[in-house]
Structure formats: C-alpha cells, structure tokens
Amino acid sequence: MQGKLLVIGFGPGSADHMTKRARQAIEESDIVIGYKTYIELVADLIGEKPIISTGMTEEVSRAQEAVKWAEKGKKVAVISSGDAGVYGMAGLVYEVLIEKGWTKESGIEVEIIPGVSAIHSCAALLGAPIMHDACTISLSDHLTPWAVIEKRIEAAAMADFVIALYNPKSGRRTRQIVEAQRILLRYRSPQTPVGLVKSAYRPRQNVVMTDLEHMLEHDIGMLTTVIIGNSSTFVHDGLMITPRGYQRKYSLDKLEQRLKPHERLRKEAEPWALDQTEETESVRKTAEEALQKVAIRQYEQARAIEEIFELAVSPGVANKAFTPQQMLLIAEMVGNRGKMMYTPDHYLKLEMLTDRPDDMVRKLKEAGLVVMPIGNVLTVKACDFCDGEKKEGIPYAEQLHEKLGGMALPKELKLGINGCGMACYGAVREDIGIVYRKGAFDLFLGGKTIGRNAYPGQLVAEGIPPEQIVPVVIQIIQEYKEHGHPNERFHKFFQRVKKAGGFVYQEPRTNQKIEVSACGE
Ligand code: SAH
After folding, report:
1. Among residues 423, 406, 385, which one has the least CA distance to residue 433?
2. Which residues span the membrane (predicted)?
C-alpha cells in the first residue's frame, strides 16, 4: 500500500472559508496530525479517524510523525491553519523528507493543499488594505534571530510595503511588537491606519481599527494579525483601504474612463514604467509625484534622529518596591540597545535610544514611577519610613520632592530625609539632611559626601516644627541656586558664604593626619 502526505491549509477557521479540496483531503485521509486547537476546529470532518495532536512548539515531531505513518502506507493529513505554506507545516514536512533522501520520483507522494492565509482573511474583514505591494513578517524570534526580523521590518517600512505582522505577541514574547512599532514610526506617520484582527472567522473574532501611534493600547495576542497600512492607506467609515496605485489611470467620478481598456497598457499611458527609455518632462513629473508621499515622510522621519536619553526612575519617594509591571515596562523601553543601572541614590538610571523622549517620560509616569532628570539636579533620598510604618514624615518628603526634585542646581545635591532618629538611611551624611524625631525635624547642612576626608552635615537646628521644614529647606536651596558658583558643591558653598537660610557655618572637625609606616606600626 502506498502512503501519501496531504499537507492541508484549512483557512482562517470557519468551514465556509475552507476549500473543497481541503475538506476532501481530510475526509480521504486515514490519520490526522495537527496542533490541538486546529484539530478542534475541523473536528467535524475528522470523525472517528485516529488523531495525533501535539502542542504548538512540537512542529518538528509532528512532521516526523507524519512522515513515519506515510511510510507505513497511510494517507496522512497534516493540518495547518491558514495556508500550510505560510509559517505552517509544508516546509517542515519537505525538510524531514529530504533529510531522509526523499525525491519526487522515488519517495512517497506529497500534496500541498492551499488555504486562505491570515493576511487575506484578516484583510477582508478590515476592508481592502492589501491592495498594493504587501509583505508578511512573523515577529516570532523562536526560530529566527531578532536581528534579522528587525532588518526586515525596517526594509519593509522604508519601502512603503503594507505589512501583515504574524505572531505579533504571546505570553512570553511581549517586547517584539513594541520594538516593531518603534521601527515603523521612524518611517511612517503615527496616524498610519493599523488593523488588528483577532481570531478571524472564528467564534471569538474581534476587529479593531487603530493607528500606528495607538496600536499598543489594544489587546494583541497569539491569535492576532496586525496589518499596517502604507503611506496611501486611509480609513473610511471604519474600513481600511489602500488605493490600487500611487498613479491613477482611472477616474472614479466618471462613468466614461479617459483610457479605454485596450489603451491602458500602451507605453504612452504609463510613462513611469521601467521600459520607457526616454526621459521626458512628463515622465519626470509623474515619477516625482508618485514618490512624493513616501519621500516627504521619510525625510521628515529621518530628521527625528535617535539620541541617547538618560533619566532616573524610582517607584516612589518613600516607596522602594517596584511592581513586576513597572519592571517589564522599563525592560521593554530600554530594550537591547539601552542600559539600566542601579544608583546609590535609590534610583534606576536608564539610558535609552529614542527620538521621542517625551513619550517615554509620559509612559513611565503613567506606570506610577517617579521620573527624575540626571545631572546637576536636586535628588531627594528618602528612607522607606520602616516600610511605611513610621509614616508621619512621608508627606514632608513628598512635598520636598514635588517642589525641589529634579531642580537644576550649580552641582548635584542630595537631600536626605529620614523618618526617625535612627536615621539608618544616612540623611546626616548627605549635602543636606533632615531627620524627623519626636514630631519635629532636625536639620543637617553641608555634609561632604565624598572623598577621603568626608564628613557629615552640621547639625544646625533641632526641633523645627513640621509646617516650617519645607519653606526652610526651599529657602536654603534658593540661596544655593542663586549664589552658588557653577560646579560648586553645597558644602563648599556653605563654607564660602558662611550662612544659608539663616544658619551659620562652623568649621568641621577634620580627620587627623596619621603617619603610618610600611608595616602599619
Ligand atoms: N499558516 C497560518 C499562519 C500560522 S502562524 C496562515 O497562513 O494564516 C500563526 C499566526 O497566524 C498567528 O499568530 C496570527 O498572527 C495569524 N493567524 C492565523 N489564523 C488567524 C486568524 N484566524 N485570525 C487572525 N490571525 C490569524
């Protein structure tokens, strides 16, 4: 008995959109092999036949199993959704066969049965977005290096293809779609129409019309195909439509066309085509018009050059606990090309390549993070107030952060705020330190925070009433901001001007010089 491999694409999922040959092939097979979900979608046709179903990632073993049974003389149906030759089983089946020395002549018979792929079923639900040159890109980097995928997205974006993104996102792969959007935005307008189709022609079908800028605000999953328009694609009445050509040989508002059907293919009717050798004025003009849309946009986007953008984030002034969502967002934003570093000031410092720094700040803030600039600015270093238990001091720390955090100063300045007399976060060792104790604040000024001769701040006042602490600190900072020399640290400033916020400077006790011999005696 001669076995046969029937590699079947059953279309998007509904029986109506399956081809007649696909249906027959399943019916005439002895065994059906496929991913569990797919088997369920065509269960009616399978009836009592033996089924070999495996998980999503076991494509290779499915192909090997199929070949094994066909070699034993069975008619084996290998089923894929959409078209079996588009990120489906067809190629794999051939690969397994070829590995075993298969040829068309001598080997078992193979029939590949075409099906309606997601690019086409999803396009139909959206309107007519694939009217012009289009491509499919799978964002799955399980079998393809991300560097290759990134290049393809960039090339397709640059060449103004309509793009269908397959496998855009899964439980574990969430960053790929974010990166894809970032690359696309370098070449296409944020308003480019984008269609999201989930489970086309299946019971949970969901169609969303959005644009490049807002696409990530919607649900995108394993069963979604994302269709990105080209520079001419438009939306009308909820439908996504790409015009048939950049250059119109037809007029839509006239019944009588300027060119009769037989005239349309004449050379003079398409002066922009490759075969035309003579460059006339009209050729140049039409070619220029055709490219205008793409070119202008690319020029505009090219000007938005990516730069390294630095900032620092923390989960809160007193709160030290990042949530998993915040960590995921940060990791996504930083990506492979950026950096994230832990700082001694209870912040994560982020270095990101971007041409849209404002967007990044907005997203981080929306996620509840405190966002701070880097450089010669004031940083509030509050303690965690014993995990929020000693909460009396927190509102003052928050007010000071709100009023002063990130303020540009002659030199970086750390304002330490600790919530009890233990001062275990070391407020006393900062440029300015305040410690909440017995319902009031102690104030320390001019700590020398670095160097071998570092010393703590001077205790200049004890028991400042809570309602006074914010204005007192603001006064000191304003004096420093106005009168400090560029790059002059606060302790140097205090030493030089001898008075800050009305508090008088005293010479610190310096370390004694100890002469030490080679053996430490
Ligand atoms: N062979 C399939 C593609 C398999 S890859 C085909 O030709 O369509 C799996 C991806 O296909 C999914 O992540 C999704 O992007 C897309 N897809 C498959 N069926 C779909 C459907 N019914 N609706 C929307 N997208 C679908």
Report:
1. 423
2. none
Q: Mark 149-165 as b/e (b = at least 16 C-beta within 10 Å).
A: bbebbeebbeebbbbbb
Q: How far apart are CA 347 and CA 315, in angstroms?
A: 8
Cα 298–299–304 angle (5° rounding)?
95
Q: Give, for ligand 1, the residue of 81, 138, 143 to mutate: max count of ligand atoms closer than 8 Å to Cβ.
A: 81
The string of DSSP codes covering 311-348 is EEEES-SS-----HHHHHHHHHHHTTTSEEEE-TTS-E
Mean pLDDT for the stretch of residues 127-149: 92
The ligand 1 atom at the shortest distance from the C-alpha of residue 202 is 22
> Greatest CA span in the chain, whole angstroms?
108
Cα–Cα dist 32/430, whole Å: 72
Q: Give me ligand 1 centre to Cα 284, in Å.
A: 42
Instruction: Flag whether pLDDT at 251 surpasses 60.
Output: no
**pLDDT of amino acid 331:** 94
Token reading at 71? 């070699």
Ligand 1 atom with the smallest distance to the CA of 199 is 23
Higher pLDDT, 318 or 284: 318
Token pair listed for 403: 């009023």
Which pLDDT score is estimated for 172?
A: 85
CA distance between the termini of the chain:
97
- The answer to whether 117 touches 220, Cβ cutoff 8 Å, is no
Q: What share of the chain is helix, strand, coil (3-state, %, to 5)?
A: 35, 25, 40
Q: What was the pLDDT predicted at 220?
A: 97
Nearest Cα residue to 171 out of 219, 221, 218, 223: 221
Q: How far apart are CA 267 and CA 402, in angstroms?
A: 70
Residues 357-410: tens digit of each pLDDT: 888 899 999 999 999 988 889 999 999 999 888 889 999 999 999 999 999 899
What order do you get walking across the sheet with 432-437 strand by strand? Answer: 378-382, 413-418, 432-437, 440-445, 458-464
Task: Fill in the DSSP letter of residue 45.
Answer: H
Pick the closest to residue 68 from 105, 31, 43 (CA basis). Answer: 31
Closest residue to atom 18 of ligand 1, CA basis:
118
Q: Ligand 1 center to residue 166 CA distance, Å?
A: 6
Strand partners, 77: 6, 32
Which residue CA neighbors atom 11 of ligand 1 most closely?
A: 166
Query: Which residue from 458, 463, 454 is spatially nearest to 476, judged by alpha carbons?
Result: 458
Dist. CA 433–CA 457, nearest whole Å:
7
For a mutational test of ligand 1's pocket, the pick from 130, 194, 223, i.e. the residue with the most ligand atoms closer than 8 A to its C-beta, is 223
For residue 12, the ligand 1 atom closest to its alpha carbon is: 22
